[in-house]
Design a protein that fits this description.
With 240 residues, this protein is α/β, with parallel strands linked by helices. Helix content is 38%, strand content 15%. The protein has a 5-stranded mixed β-sheet with strand order 3-2-1-4-5, sandwiched between helices. Strand 2 and strand 3 form a beta hairpin.
Length: 240
């Protein structure tokens, strides 16, 4: 399975009212393992970058004006994605922006059925908890100390680590440790691996309502459950 974990930076929130992409960062996973192939592109938005957006990602129009426009890199992006599944955090935002600008150019659009939203996954796993990328990095003990501002490729790399944890954690090795996918340079096609200390299984507390639903399910579906019987009564019954 081929997946593209990606992130974007923009001039604002509304592509239909003229906001534009200023950066795309992405990396390729094959069967959830990074291959080392990445896509990273700064983009000339052909408009000024508002102060609020600049405070988020630190990309000014003065810096961006000498980079290609989205029209000049759209085909390169589509070629990189190919038929891969797109993975993003709050995917509807990134999906809307890229598709909005592709549509303006008459280019093929990405299909929502080929998108995985890690924010939706996290909210279902941790209802009521903060599910920002930073919060999930903290929850899963992923080092994001070098993330002082939003950056598309860095955020995509962090998101790939978070995504693997949301899927159930890294694959155990035969040596009792875990196998961690490292992000290799673009020239490499196979991700490096290393062992790390064993991490205890995470415990997810059930709410009282969930416990009652589970108890009701067991009572309804499983008759004469052994764990509901008194051992002393069972012993006496067998002796009689």
């Amino acid at each position: 399975m081929r997946e593209i974990v990606f992130d974007t930076e923009t001039t604002g929130f509304d592509v239909e009212n003229g906001d534009r992409l200023v950066e795309i960062g992405a990396l390729e996973l094959i069967n959830h393992v990074p291959t080392g192939k990445t896509f990273h592109q700064y983009i000339n938005p052909e408009r000024e970058v508002p102060e609020d957006a600049f405070k988020v990602h630190g990309l000014s129009y003065e810096f961006l004006k000498d980079y290609p426009t989205f029209e000049q890199v759209a085909d390169k992006w589509l070629e990189f994605v190919g038929d891969g599944i797109l993975v993003a955090h709050n995917a509807s935002f990134d999906f809307k922006f890229i598709n909005g600008q592709l549509k303006e150019l008459g280019k093929p659009l990405h299909e929502w059925k080929n998108v995985v939203d890690t924010l939706e996954i996290a909210r279902n796993m941790f209802p009521g908890a903060r599910c920002s990328l930073d919060a999930l990095c903290k929850r899963f003990e992923i080092d994001n100390s070098h993330r002082t501002k939003h950056g598309a490729l860095l955020d995509a790399e962090l998101l790939a680590d978070v995504y693997l944890e949301l899927l159930g954690g890294r694959e155990p090795t035969l040596l009792g440790g875990t196998k961690k996918a490292e992000f290799a340079p673009q020239s490499q096609n196979v991700a490096a691996t290393e062992s790390k200390n064993f991490r205890e299984a995470r415990v997810f507390a059930l709410s009282p309502e969930e416990e009652e639903e589970h108890k009701a399910f067991l009572e309804k579906e499983i008759k004469d459950a052994l764990w509901l019987k008194n051992p002393e009564e069972e012993k006496a019954a067998s002796e009689n």
